[in-house]
């Protein structure tokens, strides 16, 4: 025997709305959770279904004191549907006007662009020019390294790097002198340390 199919969300919404329409009364959530199973909606899903209906303005809720009441009347659904219909009709009219504008624009753009030998020749010439332009653009990229602006930027970068390198060299000389003045007894150990990290006697300022 096949298992009974559960209700879809739309079917659950319809069943819960029937509770409101048939009674035209106000309900607490716990009351709806008891009534839902009688319509085939399990109590565990009643809360989510009711909230879904509230989000769509088909069910209304109001907090009175410490309790929250839910209600819905057939006229509420009718008003909701009428509002939706009004919005859709407005969208249709806007779309029709936009379509008419686009048709007019298309017609105007076609004027002077009718197929002719002269127009086809002009299009072929334009295509040839575009192809040549793309080829020349590619060549310009290959020669960008020789661009004067690029060369000047590289020259400035070299000057900045040169100044920074000599500044650090000066800092190293200053540090070595300070260590020699303050730790003369550790000269041998310091010299060994300098050699290990690459600071040798031939260290000097860089020349451009």
TrEMBL record:
InterPro entries in alphabetical order: LZ3wCH, Mnd1, Mnd1_HTH
Xref: Pfam families: LZ3wCH, Mnd1
Lineage top rank: taxon: Eukaryota
GO molecular function: double-stranded DNA binding
Keyword Iron-sulfur: no
Family: Belongs to the MND1 family.
Protein name as catalogued: Meiotic nuclear division protein 1 homolog
Organism: Genlisea aurea
């Amino acid at each position: 025997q096949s298992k009974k199919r559960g209700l879809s969300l739309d079917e659950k919404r319809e069943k819960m709305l029937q509770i409101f329409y048939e009674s035209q009364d106000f309900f607490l959530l716990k009351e709806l959770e008891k009534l839902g199973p009688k319509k085939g909606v399990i109590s565990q899903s009643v809360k989510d279904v009711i909230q879904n209906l509230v989000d769509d303005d088909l069910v209304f809720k109001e907090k009175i004191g410490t309790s929250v009441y839910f209600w819905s009347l057939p006229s509420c659904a009718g008003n909701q549907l009428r509002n939706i219909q009004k919005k859709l009709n407005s969208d249709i009219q806007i779309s029709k006007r936009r379509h008419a504008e686009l048709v007019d624009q298309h017609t105007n753009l076609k004027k002077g662009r009718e197929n002719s030998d002269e127009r086809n020749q002009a299009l072929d010439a334009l295509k040839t020019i575009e192809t040549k332009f793309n080829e020349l653009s590619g060549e310009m990229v290959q020669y960008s390294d020789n661009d004067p602006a690029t060369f000047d930027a590289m020259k400035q970068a070299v000057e900045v790097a040169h100044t920074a390198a000599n500044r650090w060299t000066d800092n190293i000389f200053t540090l070595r002198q300070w260590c020699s003045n303050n730790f003369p007894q550790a000269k041998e150990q310091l010299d060994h340390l300098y050699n290990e990290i690459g600071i040798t006697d031939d260290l000097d300022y860089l020349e451009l």
